[in-house]
From TrEMBL:
Keywords: Isomerase, RNA-binding. One of its GO terms (molecular function) is catalytic activity, acting on RNA. This is Pseudouridine synthase. Residues 87-238 form the Pseudouridine synthase RsuA/RluA-like domain. Responsible for synthesis of pseudouridine from uracil. The keyword rRNA-binding does not apply. NCBIfam families: rluA_subfam (TIGR00005). Belongs to the pseudouridine synthase RluA family. It catalyses: a uridine in RNA = a pseudouridine in RNA.
Length: 298
């Protein structure tokens, strides 16, 4: 279903269709401007211009299946698809996989696999990432399958209804069972890779809850209120509880027990871009994090 369908309400009578679609139905200006000249906006089956004055009861149809291409090579690979419909694809990314092609990683990325999946299923979608994860962070990633859902999901990320849950195994024991880390994160510049807590930075808020305690470690559940680069890793390092296996933000060498940071994006809650219904999704912890937890329990 690539069309959005609306019946004009009495209170919207007299509006130009561009204003109705933008201010009453939440379509982005970019989508509206692109769809109109391609004849993808219709009223009662007829193509109209954006200055069309709408009338009560008119049936407005917007085709959101824009023809696009993307310079990403399709690559057959197994994908752990957690959820998919005409608007949204959610994939459980394994560790050690780059999300989007770069100069160093032109193949083997999640996006290469997603493009292949779309082509195999005769979908005209391109990869529109709503969320991202570091190469060595595993877990759920949202991909929008059309321009409309990408815009709606990007806006929804600013709302409290949109929640991203993580699990992390960290060094040391948290004294409090739950709490909030509200500390600004600053990027010193291109010559640096690490982010730091600094008053010059952007407001960054991470909520945490202790799920399990070990002798010298803690399993945390974390919810991001903001989404800064490396936010969880920076905040936990600053608190003196760096993540196991984090080669960038930890002083510990954990390479004998885990080969990457023990951080997994394990759950999502978000309003569906078309229906507004809250979608709840979860994924299991990967085997390497499970193995780490078993070793810490001994």
């Amino acid at each position: 279903m690539n069309n959005l369908e609306f019946i004009v309400e009495k209170e919207a009578v007299g509006l130009k269709i561009r204003d109705y679609l933008k201010h009453h139905k939440g379509l982005s200006s970019r989508l509206i401007r692109g769809a109109a000249p391609e004849g993808r906006i219709k009223v009662n089956g007829d193509v109209v211009k954006l200055n069309h004055i709408i009338k009560e009861g008119e049936n407005i149809s917007v085709d959101i299946n824009k023809k696009e291409s993307q310079n990403i090579e399709a690559e057959d690979m197994p994908l752990d698809i957690v959820y998919e419909d005409e608007d949204v694809l959610v994939v459980n990314k394994p560790p050690f996989m780059v999300v989007h092609p770069t100069r160093k990683h032109k193949l083997g990325t999640l996006s290469n696999g997603v493009i292949y999946h779309f082509k195999e299923n005769k979908s005209a979608s391109v990869v529109r990432l709503v969320s991202r994860l570091d190469m060595n962070t595993s877990g759920l990633i949202i991909i929008a399958k059309n321009q409309y859902s990408h815009a709606k999901l990007s806006e929804a990320m600013k709302l409290p209804e949109f929640k991203k849950y993580y699990r992390a195994v960290v060094h040391g024991s948290f004294e409090e069972d739950f709490g909030t880390i509200d500390l600004p994160i600053y990027y010193p510049g291109e010559e640096f890779i690490k982010r730091v807590v600094d008053e010059r930075g952007q407001k960054s808020v991470t909520h945490y809850k202790v799920k399990e305690r070990y002798a010298e470690a803690t399993l945390l559940e974390l919810i991001l209120e903001t989404g800064r680069t490396h936010q969880i890793r920076v905040h936990l390092e600053h608190m003196g509880h760096s993540i196991y296996g984090d080669e960038l933000y930890s002083i510990y060498d954990d390479s004998e027990i885990i080969k990457r940071q023990a951080l997994h994006a394990y759950a999502l809650e978000f309003p569906h871009p078309r229906t507004g219904k809250i979608i709840n999704l979860t994924s299991e912890l990967p085997e390497d994090i499970k193995s780490l937890m078993e070793q810490l329990r001994i």
